[in-house]
Amino acid sequence: DVKVTQSSRYLVKRTGEKVFLECVQDMDHENMFWYRQDPGLGLRLIYFSYDVKMKEKGDIPEGYSVSREKKERFSLILESASTNQTSMYLCASSKDASNQPQHFGDGTRLSIL
Amino acid sequence: GQSLEQPSEVTAVEGAIVQINCTYQTSGFYGLSWYQQHDGGAPTFLSYNALDGLEETGRFSSFLSRSDSYGYLLLQELQMKDSASYFCAVWQAGTALIFGKGTTLSVSS
Known about the structure:
The complex is a heterodimer of chains A (113) and B (109). Helices cover 0% and strands 52% of the residues of chain A. Chain A has 113 residues and is mostly beta strands. In chain A, strands 2, 5, 6, 7, 10, 11 and 12 form a 7-stranded mixed β-sheet that branches. A 3-stranded antiparallel β-sheet of chain A has the order 3-9-8, with no helix packed on it. In chain A, a hairpin with an 8-residue loop joins β10 (87-94) and β11 (103-104). Chain A is globular. Helix content of chain B is 0%, strand content 61%. Chain B is built from no helices and 11 strands. Chain B has strands spanning 3-5, 9-13, 18-25, 29-37, 44-49, 53-57, 60-65, 70-75, 84-92, 97-99, 103-108. In chain B, strands 2, 4, 5, 9, 10 and 11 form a 6-stranded mixed β-sheet that branches. In chain B, strands 1-3-8-7-6 form a 5-stranded antiparallel β-sheet, with no helix packed on it. Chain B starts with a strand and ends with a strand. The A-B interface holds A 31, 33, 35, 40-45, 48, 56, 58-59, 90, 92, 98-107 and B 8, 30-31, 33, 35, 41-45, 48, 50, 87, 91, 95-102.
C-alpha cells in the first residue's frame, strides 16, 4: 500500500513565524501535491510538483512556497505565517501523468495564533 | 478558469440509492474522479471516468457525459458507513486535479 506521511498531525505556530510542513511518500511516485481544506471550500490546490526540483503554482500559492529536493519528499513552507493560513493541509502523491489515483496523507491541522 | 458544481448536502436512509451530481466548466478536460472523505480522515479514491458512460465498482457507480460536462456518483444499498463527504475532481491539461467543494452525505437508519 502507498504510504503518504505528513510530519505532524497538529501544529500551533505564531504569526510571522516561518513554518515547514513535511510530506514523504514511499512508493517512488513522480507527482506530489499540497492542498488546503477549509469548511465549505473543499480542497484547494496550493502547489504541485511533477519531478525533483520542479514546482508549479496551483490555485492559491500566495504566501506559500515549496521545496522538492528528493523524489520522496515535498515540503510546504509558510514564509511568514498569518492567521488566515489556519487550515487543514493535505499532501498527496500519484504515480503517473493521469494523477489517478491520488493518495493522501492524514493531514496537518495548522493553527496560527 | 475552471469550476465544479455539486450539491452541498444530501440525506438518505439505509438501503436507499443516492445520486450525487457534478457539473464542470474547464478547458483541456481529461477526466472526472470521485473521492470519499470521512470526518477526520484523508480523502480516498473511488473512481475515475475518462470516457463517456457508466463505471461500476461494487455498490458505487460513476457516470460521465463529456458533451454535457456532467457526471454523477451513484451509491446503492446505502449503509451508515457511507456517511461522508464526496468530492468530484477534474483532471485537465497542464495542471493537477481540481476538486469541487464537496457533498456531505448523511445516511440515517
